[in-house]
Amino acid sequence: MSGTEWAIIIAALFWGLLVLALCVLVARTVRILDEVVVTVRGVTEKTLPILEGVDETVSGVNVELARVDTIVAGVQSITATTDQLVGVVHATFSNPLIKAAGFAAGAARASRKMRE
To answer: Cα angle at 93 between 108 and 107, to 5 degrees?
Structure first.
């Protein structure tokens, strides 16, 4: 065998080892990808029921918020009515009470002056 034939054999062996090494790397990569796929499926199977539960909870919270909005609207209406009522009562009674207090003070002063 000549040197060229040995060089060809060594090059063929090198390429064969290189292909074998690449096959091992591809096989490991495929195994890792399979594990990733299994993990993603597991996470998906565990996450979907949780998300459905969250969806039901959010729906319930929305119903309760609608009820609270109705209650707050009622309280606002009651507060506005009470404010108007207090204004009417104040306007009705404050003026006569001020006048009566002024009259009483004037009468007391006049009675003091009459006693003197």
So the answer is: 10
d(CA 61, CA 53): 12
Chain mean position to CA 58? 10
Q: In angstroms, rounded to a whole number, what is the distance separating the alpha carbons of residues 30 and 69?
A: 56
HEC readout, the chain: CCHHHHHHHHHHHHHHHHHHHHHHHHHHHHHHHHHHHHHHHHHHHHHHHHHHHHHHHHHHHHHHHHHHHHHHHHHHHHHHHHHHHHHHHHHHHHHHHHHHHHHHHHHHHHHHHHHC
Q: What is the pLDDT along the chain (116 residues), one digit of tens a residue?
A: 788 999 999 999 999 999 999 999 999 999 999 999 999 999 999 998 888 888 889 999 999 999 999 999 999 999 999 999 988 888 888 888 888 888 888 888 888 888 87
